[in-house]
Structures are given as C-alpha cells and as structure tokens.
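dumping this here before i forget
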Amino acid sequence: MKRPYRAYLFDMDGTVLNTLTDLTLSLNKALVTFGRRGDYTEAQVRLFFGSGIAVAIRRALLFEQGVPIEKLVLVGTDREEEIVRPGMIDPDLEEKIRTFYKPWYEEHCNDHTAPYAGIPELLRRMKGQGILTAVVSNKPDGAVEKLADDLFPGCFDYTAGEKDGIRRKPAPDMLEAALKYLNVAKEDAVYIGDSEVDLETAKNTGLPCISVLWGFRDRDFLVSHGATTFAEKAEDILPWKEHA
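structure:
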C-alpha cells in the first residue's frame, strides 16, 4: 500500500535558490582581497560549490595552480590526494579567505539571488497539504536563515546551514537532525538536491533522492554519479509524494 511522504528536505543552492551570481561575486572578492585570482565566471564557480565554502575556496586555489576543472570534484573527498601535490595547499591562506568570505557573503547573499521558477508556489502548496519541509545546506548557517526568512517567509518548518559541532553534507548528520526536529522517520521522507554531494548525502542518510535539472550540475554529470530520479521543473517534485 502506498502512502504520501510526510516530509520533503531540500538543498538550497541550485535547488530552491539561484544563488550563483552572489556566490561568484563574493568568492571573487574574497580571493582577490588576498592577492589571488578573482575573475572566475559563474560557469566555473558553479563547479566549485556543493561541499561548503572551505571546499569551494580550495577548489578555486587549486584550479589557479593548474588542476583541471573536471578533477576538482575530488577536492573535499578521500581521493583529494590524487590531485594535490606537496606545497599546493596553504591552510593559513585558506582560513584567511574563508574568514573574510563568511561575513561578506552573509551581507551580500541576497543582492542578486532569487527562487527558481515555481519553487515558492510548490512550497506553499506543500504547506497547504500539511507536508513538512526543511532546507539543509552546506552554506553558512547565518546566510541560510537570512535567505529563508527573506525569500521563503513561513515556508520551511526547519532550516540549517553549516555550523560548528555538526558534520556537513555528505555526512548524514544534518539531515538526521532535520528529521529528528520534524519527528519524521526516514521511510517517510525524501531529499531533493542538484549535485553529487546531495546524492551521496541522501545515500548516507538512507533517503531517496530527487535530482533537479535546473541547478549547478547537468543530467549527464548526475547520472554518472548515480542519479535515477529527476525533476525538470518544480511541479515535477510533488508527484513523488507516494511510496510503498
């Protein structure tokens, strides 16, 4: 017998919000402030993000040093050593850039950011049907709260971004915390994201994953990382409310 999912857990960047312009401007500002290359395009920056700002900064710095952009997916994983030579990483520089970026981005995170088409209507429809919703992101927690409050007022029952004391995605901790807060069992929830990190996060948490096709990764990339269920537009998400 099929029954509806009780909760939908969403990624933020590339899933409910097009944040790419503000991410690009803020990352370039932080990099150039410390004498690094600061002319990255949105097409490049979309591949830097997905695993949080620390990984995005490292990817940018490694790309500047000649690491092919298609190899940057290994940064932040246990295979990072395959592309990193001794002396390529300067932890002190990375920390300085990250420390500058966080407050700068929080101040400017809503300069050019907007919901993807149909997302606000989808969330309001879910609310009207009594479906619980959450947004769980690897972006700084302060920016997640600000964007959720400004662009989706009253739409999410739970929001969470990267903060001390809880492992970021793809570890299951953030989604498990959301499920605990919502008081929903894993078998009654589904996760929606746009990247390989989201696919791995869902797998690690024991949730099914819907991959959206309007975000930071294309279909071929997602398929190569195991995606099997896709949404081409926001309204495609809600029909997945029934499961065995």
